[in-house]
Amino acid sequence: MATIREALALALDHHLAGRVVEADTLYGRILEVDPENADALHLHGVLCAQTGRLTDAAALLRLAVRHGPAAPDHHVNLANALRALGRTAEAIDAYQGALALAPQRVDAGFGLAACLDAAGRREESAVAYRALLAQAPTHAEGWNNLGLVLRALGRASEAVEPLTEAVRLTPLDARTQTNLAMTLDRAGDTERAMAGFVRALALDPAFASVLTGLARCRLRVGETAAAERLKGWSLRLRPDAPDLHAALARLRADRPTLADAHVRRLLALTPADAEAWNARGLHARRVGRARDARDAFHRAVILHPDLGGGRINLALAQRDLGQPERAIVEARVATALAPDSAAVLNNLALVCESLDHPSDAAGLMARALRLTPMDADGWAYRGAMLRRAGRISSGLDACNRALALDPALVGGLVNRAVIRQDLGDLDTAIADNRRAVAAAPDRADLHSNLLLSLQYSPRVTAAALLAEHRLWDDRHGRPRAPRAGWRHPNTPTPERRLRVGYVSADFGYHPIGYFLAPLLPAHDRKAVEIFCYNAKPREDGMTRRLIAGADHWRSIHGLDDAAAAALIAADGIDILVDLAGHTGNNRLPLFARKPAPIQATWAGYVGTTGLSAMDALIACPRHMPYGTDVDAVERVIRLPDDYVCVLPREDAPAVGPLPSEGSGLVTFGCFNNRAKLSEPTLALWVRLLNRLPTARLLLKTHQFDDAGVRTKLLAAIVGLGGDPTRVELSGTARHADLPGWYNRIDVALDPFPYSGGLTTLEALWMGVPVVTLGGGDRFCARHSVAHLTAAGLPELIAANADAYLDIAAGLAQDRAALAALRTGLRNRMAASALCDGPRFARHLESAYRDLWRAWVESASS
Predict the structure, then answer these.
(1) Please, which residues bridge with residue 617 across strands?
(2) How confident is the model at residue 831 (pLDDT cuts 50, 70, 90)?
(3) I need a labelling partner for 326 at 20 to 30 A (CA). Which of 233, 237, 533, 660 fits?
(4) Separation CA 478–CA 455 (nearest Å)
(5) pTM above 0.90, yes or no
(6) How far apart are CA 296 and CA 317, in angstroms?
């Protein structure tokens, strides 16, 4: 009869020869006879593991360890079985047991390191891999895995070296090449990453991950078309890969039909996946469907409440819809879920901006940039928020940092241009705006920024302004025009009630609000029906007043131009009025679509829009003197008085006495923004101060909160031969407090070539006469000329610079006449056409009717 040893040898022969059934049977019989035989337990356990019976294998191998604890193989194979079962913690103990017996066991060292990684103990895993590689320096898989562990720890730059060694040991392995390329990409070495992906692709052209990684790199260097092609090839290999459909939806965002198909497929593949709904929301937000975006992000958050990306995207969608209070709640939850995420901090900053908390936004961006100091966009945005918080010079530093990282960064150029305007560096601001337009020629808003900045420059002629505005239309207006031969369906009855629509993002405490407040309730409801299309995200007290004055109030905030145009057309608007021109948040691309048969620009801009789709420019004989029609693309309509009427500040204090009565010193003042204080303006004011040695000058605007702006302005005064000690610079005042500041000045001085608008009207209401320079070559140069004429004060309009000085000095030197003028000026203005809403409404409605009759006549012919 065979001994146990002989039977075990026979069983092992069967085992090694692949006769599994015979080996399995014989191991079992041996264990029936000798159940504590460690060798039999070990070999039977190995066989069970090899044949997929992992639970049985683990039980047998554990007994083998118990009865043969000094055999390293027993520990290693037990650990392997436990690892295969996913019982990682037990496997770690078993591998450590093997290494205690045989520290040189490479398989045990590798298994331990892998299990520590799987258990999330990556720092320990990296130590274990390094220990393994010290013994087995040619272990390619060890080098590969060490690199992956380091990358997972966020140490991508450190991970490059071990992965490079893995590639050196296995140069024909596409997977290792791909891991190195992905790590180089993560480390920011895009060029080497692309080269690595190309080598991996040569080894395995059907490796979808390689295509995806290479596409990501191509996208990073701006090769969008190449990235899209690579993603498309990858999709052929993995047609049901959700990540590829999500990526292609982003890449094809400019082709909404294709992008929407990818998003729909993504949701069909993963209908309960929060990330898929998040992708749907991102697509909807990109194409301007803010409500759809909000709903999709909300669904994502319901499916995955801890999805930080979904939370912050929901916050942004709520911000887009003018719901910042809800947005801030979601954004703070997202930040709590991912406190060290630069992207989440960045988006929380956007929400704070929408709540008008720029200081908070700038602080959040500082935190984000500590995490991602090479983020050029982040520095540009921080610059914008610092500027809004009154820290203009710091904002300039941040924008310069952004442009040092990316000299062609549009956001950096745009934000720096605004800051340079604040600093009085108009020429460099215009240059930055031109660079931004060149970098993104398809962006109409950037081109509008340039046009507005040109209005401030005394070096730009009226002809040049017209040419620049026509160029805007060539690029952004005409391409959006309706097809040739299309006709509006409006009923061409000349005397019927007209539907008039006003479009603005400034229905609030803004000059537009003060111009509309006396007009809307004064409209003749038998003649016109009033629609207001509001693009303003948040309401204020003035917004609510305007809502009460309109027949219909429509929100177009969050609607793209096509959707807004469809809404306007569905309302059957006869005359659509633009109240923004090329100012911020304008909707001129909407007007380019011609949703109404007659379109006019009025009150919000300073002259021609350049838009061929705009039929009329509503002005007055002072803003557009007869003979200047050649400066406008539109037909010029001249109202008889002024081009606006105004609601005076109801919270304004009583007109105070002349400040000079108490001090004996005349104080001139100007409360216009810094960008209007051109060098010729400052030079003329220096001449005035030199002429009146005891006079002082008070300049007040929000830009003077910043020490750098103040220093630069005073240096300009010195450079022009003035005494800076006689110039007081004051910064921001609360909206309600600003009118009271006029009680500190005797005479207001108007800047040029960009004259004061609402600022002039507020000065007059506070009893302060405004001296202006007539004869300007552009619409914005004539604001005060028009307002003073309408108020019956033409004697304050100077024909030239010398006359300007004479008028200002004359007012200062005749205190009795100045005091009398101050005392009666508010009543004089209140009784004038400037404050007569019904009179203005009749004139404006008459202009509308003339435009309508002309259209009816043309439509009939």
Answers:
(1) 601, 636
(2) very high
(3) 533
(4) 23
(5) no
(6) 10
DSSP assignments along 429-469, one per residue: HHHHHHHHHHH-TT-HHHHHHHHHHHHT-TTS-HHHHHHHH
The angle formed by the CA atoms of residues 763, 766 and 768, to the nearest 5 degrees, is 55
Residue 766 has pLDDT above 80, yes or no: yes
pLDDT tens, 313-337?
Answer: 888 888 888 788 888 888 888 888 8
For 56, counting Cβ atoms within 10 Å of its Cβ (0-12 exposed, 13-18 middle, 19+ buried), the class is middle
Tell me how far apart the alpha carbons of residues 220 and 703 are, in angstroms, rounded to a whole number.
Answer: 37
Ranges of beta strands (E only) in 611-677 are: 616-619, 635-638, 667-670
Nearest to 587 by CA among 557, 630, 617, 542: 557
**Of 229-243, 356-370, 505-519, the least confident:** 229-243
Q: For residue 338, is pLDDT > 70? A: yes
More confident call, 108 vs 498? 498
DSSP code of 412? H
Report d(CA 236, CA 231) in Å as an integer.
Answer: 9
pLDDT band for 232, please (50, 70, 90 cuts). Answer: low
Other CB atoms within 10 Å distance of the CB of residue 798: 22
Residue with tokens 């391409």: 479
Q: Sign of dihedral through CA atoms 310, 312, 314, 317?
A: negative
Q: What are phi and psi of 559, to 5 degrees?
A: -90, 135
Distances (CA, A) of 469 to 475, 504, 605: 10, 20, 12
What are the backbone angles phi and psi of residue 748, rounded to the nearest 5°? -95, 140
Residue 574 — φ and ψ, nearest 5°? Answer: -90, -40
Here the tokens at position 630 are: 């050649």
What is the rounded distance in angstroms from the CA atom of residue 385 to the CA atom of residue 375?
16
Q: pLDDT-based confidence at 235, cuts 50/70/90? A: low
Q: What is the DSSP string of 719-783?
A: HTT--GGGEEEE----TTTHHHHGGG-SEEE--SSS--SHHHHHHHHTT--EEEE---SSGGGGH
**Of all residues in the chain, what percent are helix, strand and coil, respectively (each to 5)?**
65, 5, 30
Q: What is the pLDDT of residues 364-404, one digit of tens each?
A: 999 999 999 999 999 999 999 999 999 999 999 999 999 99
In this predicted structure, the answer to whether residue 589 has a pLDDT above a threshold of 60 is yes
Give the H/E segment covering residue 532.
Answer: strand 528-534
646 Cβ contact partners less than 8 Å away, ≥ 6 residues apart: 514, 515, 518, 758, 761, 834, 835
Strands (E) located in 602-691? 616-619, 635-638, 667-670
- Give me the mean pLDDT over the 194-216 stretch: 70
Residue 651 · residue 509 · CB < 8 Å:
no
pLDDT bucket at 841, cuts 50 / 70 / 90: very high
What's the rounded Cα separation, in Å, for the pair 772 and 751?
7
CB 823 within 8 A of CB 767: yes
Closest C-alpha to 709, from 697, 719, 701, 721: 701
211 pLDDT above the threshold of 70: no
Among residues of the chain, what percentage have pLDDT more than 90? 64
CB 536 within 8 A of CB 558: no
- Please give, one letter per residue, the 3-state secondary structure of 198-238: HHHHHHCCCCHHHHHHHHHHHHHCCCHHHHHHHHHHHHHHC
Tell me the DSSP string of 471-531: HHIIIIIGGGSPPTT--------TTSPEEEEEEES--SSSHHHHHHTTTGGGS-TTTEEEE
| Residues 135/107, Cβ–Cβ less than 8 Å | no
- Concatenating the DSSP letter of every residue in 248-273 gives HHHHTTTSHHHHHHHHHHHHHH-TT-
The letter for the amino acid at 658 is: L
pLDDT score for 350: 87
What are the tens digits of pLDDT across the range 621-664?
Answer: 999 999 999 999 999 999 999 999 999 999 999 999 999 998 88
The pLDDT of residue 1: 45
Could you tell me which of 798, 821, 824, 801 has the C-alpha nearest to residue 811? 821
